[in-house]
Every structure is written in C-alpha cells, then in structure tokens.
Write a structure and sequence with these properties.
Elements (H helix, E strand, L loop, with lengths): L1 E6 L6 H11 L4 E6 L8 H36 L13 H9 L3 E3 L6 H10 L4 E5 L6 H4 L5 E6 L7 E2 L2 H7 L4 E8 L9 E8 L6 H24 L15 E2 L4 H9 L6
Parallel strand pairs: 1-2, 1-4, 2-3, 4-5, 6-9
Antiparallel strand pairs: 5-7, 7-8
Helix pairs in contact: 1-3, 1-7
C-alpha cells in the first residue's frame, strides 16, 4: 500500500510513532506531509496562544520541555542516539524522512488545491494517516484510494475535540485510551477500527499519559492497516450524539486543573 502521513512537527512523540509503523510494514511505500499546527494565525492569536501556553505548561514545564527540545536538536545535529531511550529520530522532515529516504510534501494548509493535486500526481495514497491539528476538507478526505484514518488519544466517542487527556484528567476519569478511526466530515467522527484503554495512575501527568498513548498507537495503527489491506471496512460508527466534545482549555480550566493537584509534566 501507499501510505501517507499528514502531521505537524513534534519532536517528542510522532517521530518514534512513524518509525515503528514504517519498520512494521516493510512492503509499503511511505511519504510524509508536514504542515504548521494551524493554517493561518494573526498576531493577536499568536500572543493569546503564548499566554495560554504559559498557564498550561507552567514555568517548570516550559523549562523541562525546552531542555528536552534543545537536547533533541543537538542529538539530531550530531547524528547520535539519545542516551536515555536509544532513539535516533527527533523530527519528521530531518529525522524520519531522511532515515528512511521518504518523499516529503510541505504545505501551510492541508486543504490547499495545489498541495492535493501534487499528492495525487506524485504519490497517489491508498491510506492517509492523520495526527494533525488542522481541520480536513472533503477533497482531502476523499483523496486516498481506501480511506483516511486518525489517531485520537481518547476512547471515542468520549472526549472528541482538543486536549482529550487534559479533560479526562480534570474530570477525574480512571482511564484514557487510543482510538484509530476512519475519518469523515465530522470532527473525530467516522468508524472505529481499533481502540485500547489506558489506566490513569495517581502519579500520571498529561505528558506521561501522552507517552503511554503514543507507545500503543503504532501497534493499533499497524493492526488497522492490516485490516484495511484485507478489505474489512465495516466497523462500528462513532456515536457523536452520545459522546462528549471539548475545545481548548480556558485559563479558568487550567487553574482548576492545578487546584486538583494535577500536573502537565
């Protein structure tokens, strides 16, 4: 199969996710499309995002993540393995694509007609795998020969939308999960292909739970690809009416999160 990843850059989780999938499917042809988190953002929205991030991560979290980010950049520049976990890929473009000699498609907007036409002409994907923050239009959703699938860090239909791990923790759930589902015109809608729960421990943080989610996600995605390749395409639909949907946390939500003794990292 021709498998295309459409994602925004992330040094912490996505490079290892892609590496595992690629190694598990040696007969597939892969490509990566990389985009910014949002298609457009004015200066006021950028300042608001920075302001909210300071509240969300906290000074400690920003320092820890910033240090990790710098170390990853240094390791990538030197071409060495991470001495802590053994990984040797730290980005999508310079890491995964370079290691596995994959074609890379860059775009500011995943729905841009020229970008979509280039995908058809140069790659013709059978399946598109999303771990993307941009909303996909009908043309992109209909582009692959089989379907588009998404990885979501929740047990859909619960916690559709943004920051599912944050909302699960603030609502004091006992578990989160990972859902691999076919994509449709509704956000986090479609049909469930694979799903697995993850217990929340007392010492878990948002970061540790995302680490757990991204550890099991590649195995679920590989199983989903095997299912699609075998032609099994009838799956239970996500009942969006009975689930829940959340947007980005407000400052009040973040303050309440911290008052509950929860932590980002």
């Amino acid at each position: 199969m021709n498998v295309l990843f459409i994602m925004n850059e992330d040094p912490f989780f996505k490079p290892v996710l892609l590496e595992h999938i690629i190694k598990s499917r040696p007969n597939d042809k892969f490509a990566i499309a990389v985009h910014p988190k949002t298609a457009k953002k004015n200066s006021k929205k950028k300042l608001s995002k920075i302001y909210n991030s300071l509240y969300f991560f906290g000074i400690k979290g920003i320092i820890i993540l910033g240090t990790k980010f710098i170390l990853f950049k240094v390791f990538e520049q030197l071409g060495i393995k991470n001495p802590f976990d053994g990984r040797d890929v730290y980005s999508l473009k310079k890491g995964v694509a370079k290691k596995f000699f994959l074609p890379v498609f860059l775009t500011k907007n995943v729905n841009d007609p020229e970008f979509l036409e280039r995908l058809r002409r140069e790659f013709s994907p059978d399946v598109i795998i999303s771990s993307s923050s941009q909303i996909w239009g009908k043309e992109l959703l209909n582009l692959p020969n089989i379907c588009c699938i998404n990885r979501h860090s929740a047990l859909l239909p619960k916690y559709r939308g943004l920051e599912p791990v944050f909302w699960a923790m603030i609502n004091e759930e006992n578990e989160i999960g990972v859902t691999i589902h076919k994509m449709c015109y509704k956000i986090d809608g479609g049909e469930i292909i694979e799903q697995q729960s993850i217990p929340i421990n007392n010492d878990d943080t948002i970061f540790s739970l995302y680490q757990k989610a991204f550890c099991i996600a590649p195995y679920l995605i590989v199983k989903a690809l095997e299912t699609l390749e075998a032609g099994r395409i009838n799956f239970p639909p996500i009942d969006t009416k009975s689930g829940s949907y959340f947007s980005s946390p407000s400052i009040k939500d973040i303050i309440r999160f911290r008052k509950l003794g929860k932590h980002f990292i």
